[in-house]
Amino acid sequence: MLPGNSPVVILKEGTQRDSGKKATHNNIAAAKAIAEAVRSTLGPKGMDKMLVDSMGDVIITNDGVTILKEVEVQHPAAKMIVEIAKTQDSECGDGTTTAVILAGELLKNAEELMDKGVHPTAISNGYRRASNESLELLNKISRKVSRSDVKTLKSIAITSMTGKSSEANADFLADLTVNSIRAVSEKVGKRFEVDRTNIKIQKKQGGSIADTEQVSGIIMDKEPVHTDMPKSVQKAKVALIDTALEIKKTEIESKIQINDPSQIQAFLDQEEATIKKMVDTVAKSGANVLICQKGIDDLAQHFLAKNNIMAIRRAKKSDIDALSKATGGRVISNIDSMSKKDLGFAGLVEVRKIGEDDMTFVTDCKNPKAVSILVRAGSEHVADEIERNLDDAIGVVSLVFKDGKIVTGGGAAEIELALKLRKFAPRVGGREQMAIEAFANAIEVVPSTLAENAGLDVIDTLMGLRKSHTKKGRNQHAGLDAFTGKVVNMQSRNVVEPLRVKTQAVSSATDVATMILRIDDVIASKQPEGPEPDGSDGMGGMPPGMM
Q1: What is the CA radius of gyration of the chain?
Q2: Which long-range contacts (CB under 8 A, 24 or more apart) does 12-15 make?
Q3: What phi, psi does 118 have (nearest 5°)?
Q4: Domain interval for residue 335
Q5: 355 three-class SS
Q6: How many domains is the chain partitioned into structurally?
Q7: How many CB atoms lie within 10 A of CB 5?
Q8: Segment 1-55, tens digit of pLDDT
Q9: Residue 99 near residue 91 (C-beta atoms within 8 A)
Q10: Does a structural domain hold residue 177?
C-alpha cells in the first residue's frame, strides 16, 4: 500500500479466505475424511455404522449412501463427495462406497504428486486420460449376459447383498428380486427398460426374513373404510378414483337462509341424494372394489357397504398409479363419466392380518406391470436394512437387464484395470504419466480395502492378485475370497457385478477429484449473527478442514 493511501476493502468484514496450497490441502483433507468414514463398510466382511439423529432415531446400516445422507456434512468439498454417492445410488443402486473411497484415494495420490512439484492441472489431465482409458478397458474385459440367464442374474443380486444383513437369506431374496424385475420389465424398441418404481417394497415388523414374499400386484397398508364391507373379493373389478366421494365445499363464502324446519330436512335429503347418486354410478359401472386417493363421506361408506363394494380411502398416489399398471384400470377424476371400460381387473382383493395390522392385497392380475415385496423382520431396524439391501439388489439386476454386461467382482476387475493402465502410462509420457500411474494405484484401493476389512495383510494380498493376473496362463478373473483369504477365480464363484456400476464409479470419482484439485481459493462469507428473518439459525460459513 502506498503511503497516504487508504486500504481498499474488497471482501465483507469477517469473510474467511483460504488460498493456494492451504485451500487445496483443506479440501483434500475433507474428502479423505469422508472416504475414511465409509471405508470399513466395503466388502463381504464390511462393518455396520450406527447413526443417531437429533431426534434420537437410530439407523444401523453399511450402505454408503445412507450413511452419508444421514451425516450432516458442512465442508463444501465433503459435500461434493456426498453428491457422487447420491449420483451413484440414483444411477446404479449400488457401488456408492466404491465411488467414494476411489475419489478419496485419487485425491490422496494427487496430494503426494503435488508435494513433489507436479501441477494440479497436469494431474487433472492425467486423471481424465486414465479415466477415459479405464472406461474402454472395462468395456473390453466385460462379458455379455442373457436376460434369460436367471442363474447369473441371481448371482448379481447375491453379490450385492453379500456382507449385509440380508446375506443369510441372500439366495431367497435374490429369487424375489429377479422374479420382480422380470415381471415389470418392458421392451421398448430393441432395449429392455426396467422402472424400479414399479417394484414396491412394503415393510412390516414381525415374523422372520424368510416370511418375506413377493406379490404379483400391490400391497397397501390400508383396510376397508366400513366394517360391513367384504374382506375378500374374487374376480375384482377395481375402480381407481383420485377425487373425493364427498360434497364439495364452495370455494367462496356462502350462506343458506332457512325459514322453515322442513327446509333443513330438504337440504339434508339433497346432500344424501347427491352422495347416493355418486355411489349408484360406481355400482352401475360394475365395480366391486373402490380405491380412492382422497376421502369418502360417512354416508358414502354406508351406501357402498349396502352395495357390497369394498372401499379404501386416502390411498397414496404412487399406489394408485401402480394399481393402474397392475390391473389395467384407468384413474377416474370424474365419477359421473365412469364406465365399465375404466375398471381394472384383479383375481383377488383381500384383507390379511400382517402382524397387528390389516393390509390389503391386490393380487392375481392378468399382466401385472407392478409388483410388491412384503419385507418381514423381527425388528424395525432389520426390516429397514433389508429394504435397503433389496433396493440395491433391484438396482444392479435392473442394470444388467438393460445393459446386458457384467464384470468380475472381488477386486478382479480393478486389478486387471490397474495393470493395463500401468502399461498405458509410458505411452503418454511426461508428468501426465505420473498422474496415470497414480490413478492405477488408486484403483487398487478396492481390493486393498477388501483385504483390510477381512483382516488380511494388504501388501501380500495385492502381490498375490497381481501375480495371478500377470503370470503365464494368467487369469483376469482372479479376485480375493474374503472368507478364505485366498486368490480364486471369482467368475467360477459367480461373484459378478454390472459393468455400469464400475464405469459410473470411475467417472464420478474422477470428475469430483479433478474438480477439487483445480480449486485454489475458497471464500466463505461470514456466518450471520442471530436468527435469520424466518426464525431459523444462520448456518453459513465454512469451518476450515471440518466435516
Answers
A1: 30
A2: 12/525, 12/526, 13/526, 14/525, 14/526, 14/527, 15/523, 15/524, 15/525, 15/526
A3: -80, 130
A4: 217-367
A5: coil
A6: 2
A7: 7
A8: 455 566 655 556 555 556 567 777 888 888 888 899 889 988 888 888 888 877 7
A9: no
A10: no
Name the burial class of residue 75, with classes exposed (0-12), middle (13-18) and buried (19+) by CB atoms within 10 angstroms of its CB: buried
Dump pLDDT digits (tens) for 163-180.
Answer: 787 778 888 888 888 888
Is 423 found in the same domain as 298? Answer: no
Q: How many CB atoms lie within 10 A of CB 342?
A: 18
CATH number, position 416 = 1.10.560.10
Domain for residue 100, yes or no?
yes
Question: Contact at 8 Å (CB) between 255 and 346?
Answer: no
In the three-class reduction of DSSP (H, G, I as helix; E, B as strand; rest coil), residue 343 is classed as coil
**Helix or strand holding residue 234 (H, E):** strand 232-241
Whole-angstrom distance between the N-terminal and C-terminal Cα of the chain? 37
The amino acid sitting at 342 is D
What's the CA gap between 4 and 254, in Å, rounded?
Answer: 76
- Enumerate the active-site residues: 63, 96-97, 392
Q: How many CB atoms lie within 10 A of CB 172?
A: 13
